[in-house]
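Researcher: Before we compare anything, I want clean individual predictions. No alignment, no superposition, just each chain on its own. First chain goes here; please echo the sequence and then give the structure tokens.
Model: Echoing the first chain and its structure:
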Amino acid sequence: MLGPLRDLGVPAQRARTSAIRHLVLQAPAPVIAKALGYHDETATRLVTEAGGTWSRYAPGDHER
């Protein structure tokens, strides 16, 4: 999947990191962590690095 990006000269790791940082700005870190299999702390760090504001998201079961 990242082959075309690599062919254009875009480093795969940077593209992945950029995509994840953009994603955590769109949804709460716990939601992204669960969807991608990341640890909550990792997703929270990515939100902070990206300048996100999801610090007041209420964790827990929201499927009711």
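Researcher: Okay. Second chain, same rules.
Model: Second chain and its structure:
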Amino acid sequence: MARMIELGRGESLALLASVPMGRIGFTQRALPVIRPVSHLVDGDAVVIRTHGGSGLLSTTGVDPVVVYEADQISPQTHTGWSVMVTGPATRITAPAEVARYRQLLVPWIDIDMDQIVRVCADLVTGYRLTGTRA
């Protein structure tokens, strides 16, 4: 039986940075929505690209609070890890930052992903599942 061990912030962000994709969760028309996206970790933030018509960008006035999650769990051994980052999602508009992230973060689907969004890691939760018996 696997055991769940809580991870610290630094290890959690390092694990998140080790994989190219995850899922972003946000609210659209008062309902929860989860979308797969590619990402990169930059300091204490997760950065993604999205398209202009994205539901994530449809809110007005206030940066929405979102959750970003990625994991790597083996279905055979039931071991691995899971990390969640919760915080406000802010559209990046500074031309130098936009250009930098467009070079670093290549879209994986055939849609014009012209918008860059930074999720501030206000809350980071990570767990490792180990094969060690309790």
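Researcher: What stands out in the second chain?
Model: Helices lie at 9-17, 95-104. Additionally, The first helix runs from residue 9 to 17.
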